[in-house]
Known about the structure:
By secondary structure, the chain is an alpha/beta fold. It has helices spanning 17-25, 47-58, 74-77, 102-119, 133-142, 157-171, 205-208, 212-216, 218-224, 226-234, 240-253, 303-322, 324-327, and strands at 5-10, 36-41, 65-71, 83-86, 125-128, 152-154, 178-179, 182-184, 192-194, 199-200, 203-204, 263-268, 280-287, 293-295. It starts with a strand and ends with a helix.
Amino acid sequence: xxxPIRVSVTGAAGAICYSLLFRIAAGELFGPDQPxxxxxxxxxxxxxxxxxxxxxxxxxxxxxxxxxxxxDNPEDGFKGxxxxxxxxxxxxxxxxxxxxxxxxxxxxxxxxxxxxxxxAADDVRVVVVANPCNTNALITRSNAPDIPKERFTAMxxxxxxxxxxxxxxxxxxxxxxxxxITIFGNHSNTMYPDIYNATIxxxxxxxxxxxxxxxxxxxxxTIQKRGKAIIEARGKSSAAxxxxxxxxxxxxWFSVTPKDSWVNMAVNSDGxxxxxxxxxxxxxxxxxxxxxxxxxxxxxINDFAQEKMNITQEQLLExxxxxxxxxx
Length: 328
Ligand code: NAD
Ligand code: LMR
């Protein structure tokens, strides 16, 4: 029998996980022939609700699910884990920016980084979803010195998917016709969705969409403020679309990225595109199917893009300054 892959997920009784866990259990991460064991982590007051979610997962009788383990602390929950998806943390409400969550959520990632360092499998891969996700990933990584830096990522896949939809909708095509979208920087209101290297039907986006004022203005702010717009409309932050993005982030990390495209993840900066080393900054990447990735090199960065990339880097440096006590 194929050895199951152990997938730990924090915040397992929350809104995002109510869609994400079922899709992992259904085999959508690693395919129908790869069993998975779910290791679900919550805080003690949410364990009862988690038991309800577990009952529902079991009642789906998923053939790829080889077991569920639950834990009310990260050390037990990360034991032997191959993949850790860190969703647990407060979401923002109306009137807040994601960075307002640093003081509440930051300390969670100090203890989870330490727990991963101690308990996870040698090959563990980590993605942080909880906001502010880039800086939370930086805190997690800083507290797990035995795990290679490249294994820590934060989720900007939702921004990539939002960009695909906005471009397809404007051009009157489907999302399948849009490729090579790039998301640079922080998952925040400064993120920069770069379309100068993207294509629609293989043609530059700027040739297909001739409303360049929209491309430089409303399009970018729609992506930057999409999370806020959803909170204003629903009264709660995005959940199913975030769960979908988390699934796609991990699935694509373990898949071979086609040569003529890429996906976006916030990863450890190696200095590519002049971004300060060791920041968790979103870049376009290509994955090799074995859990490794390379930052796509050689993209053209015009003055407009460079300015936007600098702004989002500045914000990440500022956030890093606010959590100095958690990363030293
Ligand atoms: P939610 O409040 O519905 O669920 C969060 C869950 O996390 C709760 O059940 C809570 O008990 C649990 N939790 C809190 N602290 C924990 C800890 N220390 N260990 C384990 N579990 C813990 O929130 P949600 O809607 O599921 O959102 C979760 C996070 O994801 C928020 O921070 C939100 O802002 C973020 N988010 C990120 C993106 C993105 O694109 N990166 C998108 C949407 C939401
Ligand atoms: C999103 O982009 O939808 C999430 O990060 C939630 C938020 O606070 O905006």
